[in-house]
Fold:
Amino acid sequence: MNIGLIAHDSKKKLMQNFCIAYRGILSHHDIYATGTTGRLIEEVTNLNIHKFLAGHLGGEQQICAQIEQNQMDLVIFLRDPFTPKSHEPDVNKTIRLCDMHNIPLASNLATAELLIKALERGDLDWREIYKN
Structure:
């Protein structure tokens, strides 16, 4: 499955720790991330990450394009609801597209853990049917 990872600046360390904790599950899937987030994840996990541009340079739009083409199966966007910066990715577009295309989306650690465990159990295998 194709998993998209995006993190606001203040959540990048949390995304790294999440990926360390669930490296075993993530290693069985294709991981896509905005540039800086992807690089930081690779540094601590040695996972192969397909890196787009940095979020503020268009990486979030590249992930959104994948969502629009039904090429993303799961998105984890760890966002900072208190101090988002103007140069950071726009969560509203990502949420809207995930809703439109029926893509599971986590915007916080609790939901991310639920989705990653569901992925491991095979609860998201319906995405393969949905894509075809």
Summary: Strands lie at 2-7, 30-33, 49-51, 74-78, 105-106. The first helix runs from residue 12 to 21. The first strand starts at residue 2 and ends at 7. The CA atoms of residues 53 and 59 lie 4 Å apart.
